[in-house]
Automatic annotation (TrEMBL):
The chain holds residues 241 to 606 of 606 of the full protein. Homodimer. Catalyzes the first step in hexosamine metabolism, converting fructose-6P into glucosamine-6P using glutamine as a nitrogen source. Keywords: Aminotransferase, Cytoplasm, Glutamine amidotransferase, Repeat, Transferase. This is Glutamine--fructose-6-phosphate aminotransferase [isomerizing]. Its EC number is 2.6.1.16. Residues 43-182, 215-356 form the SIS domain. Its main location: cytoplasm.
Length: 366
């Protein structure tokens, strides 16, 4: 059932051209600049009154949650916090009836996430679950369910379900932003247009697989990797580092690039690979400065950058190009490129990619 692919993970990475489309199918109205989410049962008043969002998730889904924070703040004007479910459960969170809780869980069965959402019930506030599995336990615990429709994921490392979560969060952020009159119709139209182009863009990233494989093999003997990004590329960097750790057993860290000089720079040695996600956007110039800083310490910089960026070649040792799109959406493309990078690194090292040691697909014990 791997349809000719060597591993489920590789198959699932390739399925993203279709799975992303399934996440947004039937929900976009480009003409009006609106996203339809009939599955949300929130009234206009409830949406207007949202004071804060609390995202609850674990692992890759937590990285998606951080991504969602940037989107909900930027597109819907809603203050958002992101909590690891295992921390939220044992904290004293400050919540009230206007706090909207969003639990993100691919499997819908993660013990900590389920326990956390059960704790939220006491606040009599609204809850939304974002999940991939129809009828999973979380769907019975939350008042609203947004399905990611990515199809079953067999590889232990989350790939297509992660990008589907990102798309679900775009849908939610645009929907809430429009209903709160925070996001202008024209801004929403632009995002919707670019969302529709995303599956085609993903195909272009997949077409780079041979180059990505070559680069991955070149660095695979390294002991430590660093992944850096700013803004939405920061959660993408965290997720890329997690993917590499999980399947290749290489030590990898993701950082907000501006944080490097506050400690992690001390770790860099001659030849340490630093993967910089440096697509065009608000912090592009700042990223170039960060790349200069790491180059000055002898790091090897692998840049994920917009195709056609002429400047980046002067700074980075190698460049993995991704198609140019809305800066809000490019992290999806960078994530696909870096899923391939993690996959080919693990392949080079001969790891058991679909079933990494010590890990389970769904963590039903705390
Ligand atoms: C990473 C991975 C895990 C899960 C985490 C949460 O590739 O698969 O980090 O993301 O265990 O799982 P869900 O999303 O099912 O709650």
């Amino acid at each position: 059932e791997k349809s000719g692919y060597a591993h489920f993970m590789l198959k699932e990475i390739h399925e993203q051209t279709r799975s992303l489309q399934k996440t947004f199918a039937g929900k976009l109205s480009e003409l009006e600049g609106n996203v339809q989410l009939p599955e949300l049962k929130l009234t206009d008043e409830q949406i207007r009154n949202i004071g804060r969002v609390e995202m609850i998730a674990c692992g890759t889904s937590w990285n998606a949650g951080l991504f969602g924070k940037y989107l909900l703040e930027g597109l819907a004007g809603i203050h958002t916090d992101v909590s690891a479910a295992s921390e939220f459960r044992y904290r004293d969170p400050v919540m009230d009836c206007n706090t909207l809780t969003i639990a993100i869980t691919q499997s819908g069965e993660t013990a900590d996430t389920l326990a956390a959402i059960r704790n939220v019930a006491q606040y009599e506030s609204s809850t939304i679950a974002i999940t991939n599995v129809v009828g999973s336990t979380i769907t019975r615990e939350a008042d609203n369910v947004v399905y990611t429709h990515a199809g079953p994921e067999i590889g232990v490392a989350a790939t297509k379900t992660f990008t589907a979560q990102l798309i679900a969060l775009y849908l939610l952020a645009v929907h809430l932003g429009r209903r709160r009159n925070y996001l202008l119709p024209d801004e929403a139209k632009a995002i919707i247009k670019n969302l529709k182009e995303l599956p085609g863009n993903v195909q272009q990233v997949l077409n780079q697989r041979d180059i990505i494989r070559k680069y991955a093999a070149r660095y695979a003997a390294n002991r430590d990797y660093y992944f850096i990004g700013r803004g939405l590329n920061y959660p993408a960097a965290l997720e890329a580092a997690l993917k590499l750790k999980e399947i290749s057993y290489i030590h990898a860290e993701g950082y907000a690039a501006g944080e490097l000089k506050h400690g992690p720079l001390a770790l860099l040695e001659n030849g340490t690979p630093v993967v910089a996600i440096v697509t065009k956007g608000r912090t592009y110039e700042k990223m170039l400065s960060n790349i200069k800083e790491v180059k000055a310490r002898g790091a090897e910089v692998i840049a994920v950058a917009d195709a056609g960026d002429r400047e980046i070649g002067k700074y980075a040792d190698i460049v993995i190009p991704v198609p140019v799109t809305n800066p809000l959406l490019s992290p999806v493309l960078s994530s696909v490129a870096l899923q391939l990078f993690a996959y080919y690194t693990a392949l080079e090292k001969g790891c058991e990619i679909d079933k990494p040691r010590n890990l389970a697909k769904s963590v039903t014990v705390e």
